[in-house]
Every structure is written in structure tokens, then in C-alpha cells.
Amino acid sequence: MRDVETDAGAPPRPARVALFTSCMADLAAGGPARATVEVLAAMGVTVELPRGQTCCGQPALNSGHPAEAGTLLDRWLRIFAPYDAVVTPSGSCAAYLHHHLGRLRAPAPEHRALVERTYEFSQFVMAYGSGLRLRLRGSVTYHDSCHMARTLGERRTPRQLLGRIEGLEVREMAGCDTCCGFGGTFAAKFPDVSVAMADTKLGTAAAGGADWLVAADPGCLLHLGGRARQAGPPVRTRHLAELVRDALVPAEVPA
Amino acid sequence: MSEHRRDGTRTAGQRSSALAGRERLHPDRPEWAAGDIPPHRRPLPLITRDALTVRTARPTHDRLAALNEERHVGTWTPEVARLREQGAAIRRETLPDLEKYLAQLTGNVERNGGVVHRAATPAEARAVIERIARENGVRLAVKSKSMATEEIHLNAHLTAQGIEVVETDLGEYIVQLADERPSHIVGPALHKSRQDVADLFGQLAGDEVSGEPEDLASFARTRLRADFKAADMGISGVNFAAADTGTLALVTNEGNADMVTSQPRVHVAVMTVEKVIPRFADLGVLIPLLCDAATKQRVSVYQTLLNGPRREGETDGPEQLHLVILDNGRTKALGTPQEEVLACIRCGNCQISCPVYRTVGGGHPYSAVYGGPIGAVLSPLLGERPNQDSDLPFLSSLCGACYDACPVKIPIPDLLVNLRAAHERRQPAARTARAGWRAWALAWRTETGFRATMAGARLAGRLLPDGVLARLPGPGRGWARGRALPPLREAGAFRRWFRRQEESRDRDRRQG
């Protein structure tokens, strides 16, 4: 399986790939993690799930508890060290690791290198999944999650991935990179502000008339989907990995 | 009749024409929007919740969102991106040795004929300005926009001493009449619609006032003109103060700063310590940068550069120029990561870009002089009671739009995170939260602990209906306000699925 084609310019496909589920996906939204495994399998990549993984520490740091965040970050670095690549369906966790590693710790070169080979889902698929055939009829609008777009700097890659799905119409909405109001514990500390922000986002998405609102962050989707189900504008939400999994066209087996 | 009133029928003891008829005003505003900050404000989540239901919140949100779209499409042009790098560097140049630059500035201002006063606290600054006013027999003062004077609540103080103070920036004039604080650093009345302003002016005039922008501006101009002539003192802020020449730079679009600093006998300029810049030449970078970030202008309509009071043979300018340099807690931040906040040039761009600020309808719900992201960083540093606004940094989703919008590259989200940590360390009330996070980290340091969390969530999801879950204490309760809970009974389902997959794969391999 290792000899599957790699994209031009991309480094050779990593052999041992670990899935960093993200604690949120583990606890409350398993769909994106499962879809990630399935898409990677279709690419011919076997994913390993390091047993001891829990959380990268982001909720603690953002809530004002850097010591606790550091404890979990150290642990994260230890657990994922043996792998050639780490893939996560959470843009926010990937961004956190990239941005806060140096803020929380004076990182060793091998820690930096580990974070460098940690990919958000769409980054990995775009780097190594050129052989995938994707087809899905319908329309989507893409919500740029904040950490993914601003901290990780990824606005293009997820859109390129959507663009590869035959039959899919991508409708950009106004304020596509405006925060949905999740913000981790912000959502629970200031529920009214957070919900009002979700309604703004969902309202814009609904006005565009797309079938799905797609994002690359389980956190945003939990918040937006939860709001839509409860009382917000009727919008269906989907994680990018789930959408791509739905779009997988089985590879033709050569005779 | 109405013409007569518009020119201002003055009551006894009143000199201002702009404020004539003020007794007819009935400001309609929530208490947290007031000019004076209530000393013990209500908890922040309650204020922000109420703010969402204020009549002006939604229209303000829409206005600010439209402004944001307009300004941030395409973000920085290559030309401004270059200025941004230069500006960011210039604004940090003074910080390692601020006192040296302040001394140089002081020397040059004095050489130019000005008088420099240092004030460590708002009380000291107020006392200095009051003394200057008394010594000069001041009864009416005109002001051009200044956040530093908002910070020290100068208007209320001088008014209480029997000195009338009139704001001459149109937005500031509006919020003064409405008895509010500015809701935005650059656009103090951004939360008011044209009709709101027309209503306010109408009350003041005791007659109907048209809502056409030209008519509103003309109404204010007519009333303010008389005050510029009659005022004994002009009070201004300072956008930048060049250390090498002692030049005070002011940037406006209405020209009111020119009037304030040239017509009255006495000019008092109030600046905060960090406004000093190394060189006069730096204005060539900073003024266009400020104008682009604040209003997407290449340069503002007026740039007022002041080099001391009126000299022999000059036709205008004040007889005295006083520069009050206010610290108010800022120098405490020097040498810490928080000193970055002192690079701020008060463009207000972070506020417009902030979805939280927009959603709560602007600055008032922050319950501090400076609202929005920069206010959340700056406010806890300030004041005679530092840390009184230390919960403000939590009022952010850490989306990072403020950093992208900042013309001098202040890493506001990182500073907010630092301040949250400081708050959690210091607040006795946060002890429970601290213990909770410690227990959380301890549990999730082991796989067993994490599994226990998943099992607990699963159990709760199975046994308790959502209605009960929503009422349990903890973050779930806040979450349940307005959002459906995730299906907790499925907690950990992914791991189980993955292990089953793995087992069947192994089985296949063994059999194959």
C-alpha cells in the first residue's frame, strides 16, 4: 500500500499515521473522527488510534489555566511522538498545537517537528489524497472556523477539497469567516451572546439556501447544530470529513 | 422662534450655546451606558445578556458588520501592509526605555514654550487640569475628542467645579447630550442611528430637527461655533507626541481640534504615557496607518501639529499650552508580555472586526471606558482600582479577528489568554474553578480517567432526560441555554467503533 501515488511536490506519504480524535469528538461528536478514518482508509492509509490520548489542553489554557494545559500538552507530545504523521478532524486543536506549543513550553526540536507533521483533516487529504474520486450532488456553504482560518492560516485547502467533489455546488456566504460564537468555554460563560452569534451565522447560511453548512471543526458544529436543532434558523450542519466520506466513490478494482 | 432656539437660548449662569436647552433632554439609556462607571457593576454575563435586548443592539450590530465587510475585504493593501510592519516596529521602539523618550519629549515641549505635567493617577490629572482652569478663571471649556479624558472622567469633574465642558467632535457631542460614554474609540456614537440623533437634537432645540446628515451636522456646527469663540480653555487629546521635536499631533476629520487648540486662551492637551513616538518623521508612517485602520482613509481631513503656544507675531494659537502626561497603571505593564497593549494607536479597528463587540451592540456592555478587544486588554491595567475589570478578557471567543485587524500587530488573543490566567490566579472566587480544572487535568492525565469521564457522560445521558441535564450545575447549564445538548449516551462510541474495526481487520489478516 505504501507505493500509492503521492501528489507532486508533497513529501512521501507517511507510513505510520495516528488519529488525534480531539476530546470533543471522543465525548460528544464521534462522526467526524470516524469519517476521517474512513476517508484515510479509502486513500490507502491505515490509521492508528493511540490509546492513551485524551486532550491537547486547549480548554484549560483558554480558560486561564496554563499549568493544567501544559500537563496535558506534555502528555500529548509523548503519546504522538512515535508517529510519522498525526491527523485530526479538529482545525482548532491543530491550530492550538501549532500556535501555543511555543507559548506554553520551550519546545525541544523534536516537539516542533512533531507539531509540524500534525495535519488538520483537509490538509492531509489534499497532500496525499489525489487518487480519491469524490462525487456528491447538492450544495454546501463553508464556515471558516476561526482557529483554522486565522491561526492555522487554512482558508484555501478545505475549499480546494470541496472543489474536488464532483456535482457539489459551493456557495460562499457573507461573513464566512465570522466567528460562530462557540469559543470553547465562552459558549457556556456567555450563552446569550454565544447563541446570538450562532443565530447570525445560521441566518446567513439559511439565506444562502445551501443544503448543508460545512465546517472543519467539531466544536463549531456542535454549537451551530445544537442551536439549529433547539430554536435557531433551520440549517443542517456537516463536518467536512463526513461530507467527503459521503462523497467517496469506490475505487474500481483492476481486473 | 425655532431659529432663535437653535442659536441657543442660554439660561442664567450658562455660557455654552451648544448645551443650551439641555434641561429638556431625557436620556434613555441603560445604566451601564452612563458616563460614569458604576463602582460595583453587575456581573458581566448579566450586563451582556441585557445588552442584547437594548433597542439599539441589533441595528448597531448590522451597521458594524457592514462596516467590517467594507473595511476588511481584501485586508491590507501591499502599501499599507508595509506601513503596518514599520508602524508596529515604531510603536515598540519606545517601550524598553519609555522614560527616556518622555524626558526628551518634556524637554522639547518646554523649549517650545509649553508646560508639562505628569500625573500618575486620574485624580492627579483632574487636579492639575482643575488648577490650570482656576488659575485662568475658566468658565467654559471646549474639548476635542480624547479617550484619555474619558478615562479620568474629566467632564463630570469639571462640571462639578462649575466649569462648563462642551464636546466638539460630533460623535462626542451626541454622546455627551445623551449622557453616555463613547461606544467606540473612533466613532463614539456608532450605536445611534440618524433618527436617534435627530430626536436628541430635537429635544435639545425644543423643536423638530431634520434627520438629514447635512442638517444634523449644520445644527451642531451652528451651536458649537459660538462656543469656540466664547471658550476660555481648549482641552484635547494627543494622537502622537514626537519626542525629538516636542510636536503634538492630532488627527480629525471635522477640524474641531484646530479650533479647540487655537481659539481659547489656554490649551490643555492630555496624553497617556505610551503616546510618545521617537521622531517627528514617524508621523509619516503612523498617521496614514491610523487613518487607514480607523476609517479606510489615506489620510484624515485635518492633521493638527502643535509646536507650543502662540509666539510673538503669530496670529493664532493659545497663550498657554499645557501637556498633561497620564500614567494610570500603564507603566506597570512594561517589561511584561502585556506591554504590547501600549503599542495601540486607538484606531478602533479591532472593535469593528470583533463579532462579540458587534453582537452586544458596541462598547457599553463592557462597562468600561474602552470597549471591545483592546478594551478587554487595556481596562484591567487601568485605574485606581486595578484589576476591577479583570473578567473582561473572558468576553471574547478568541476568534482572532482583532489581531488580523490591528494595524500595529498587537497579539490581542494571546494577551486575553494571559489575562484570563492572571484573573484565575488572583480571584478568590475562582478557587472552585481552579480546583475543578486541576481535578480535570489530573483525571485526563490517564487513559482510565478519560474513560471514566466518557462512561460518566454516557451514564448521565442514559439516565437523565435533557431537561435535568440542562439544570445541573457546571458548564452544561450555560450550554443548555439555547442549544440542544449533544447525545451524551453515545459518548465514546467512536473508540468502540474503532476497536471493532481494528479487531475485524486483524481477523481478516489472520484468515487471509
Q: What's a concise summary of this model?
A:
The complex is a heterodimer of chains A (255) and B (512). Helices cover 49% and strands 13% of the residues of chain A.
Characterize the structure shown.
The complex is a heterodimer of chains A (255) and B (512). With 255 residues, chain A is α/β, with parallel strands linked by helices. Chain A is 49% helix and 13% strand. Chain A contains 13 helices and eight strands. In chain A, the strands form two sheets. Chain A has a four-stranded parallel sheet, sandwiched between helices. In chain A, helix 12 links the parallel strand 7 and strand 8. Chain A is globular, with a radius of gyration of 18 Å. The two termini of chain A are 18 Å apart. The N terminus of chain A is likely disordered. By secondary structure, chain B is an alpha/beta fold. Helix content of chain B is 47%, strand content 9%. In chain B, helix 4 crosses helix 13 and helix 16 crosses helix 18. Chain B is elongated and about 105 Å long. Classes of the chains: A alpha/beta (255), B alpha/beta (512). At the A-B interface, helix 1, helix 2, helix 3, helix 4 and helix 8 of A face helix 2, helix 3, helix 15, helix 17 and helix 18 of B.
Low-confidence stretches of chain A: 1-6
Proportion of β residues of chain B? 5-15%
Largest sheet of chain A: 4 strands, parallel
Radius of gyration of chain B: 27 Å
Encode the helix/strand succession of chain A as letters.
EHHEHHEHHEHEHHEHHEHEH
The rounded distance between the terminal residues' Cα atoms of chain B is 102 Å
How far do the termini of chain A sit from each other? 18 Å
**Total of helices of chain A:** 13
- Give the rounded overall mean pLDDT of chain B: 92
Uncertain regions spanning at least 5 consecutive residues of chain B? 1-8
The mean pLDDT of chain A is 93
Radius of gyration of chain A: 18 Å
Instruction: Tell me the strand percentage band of chain A.
Output: 5-15%
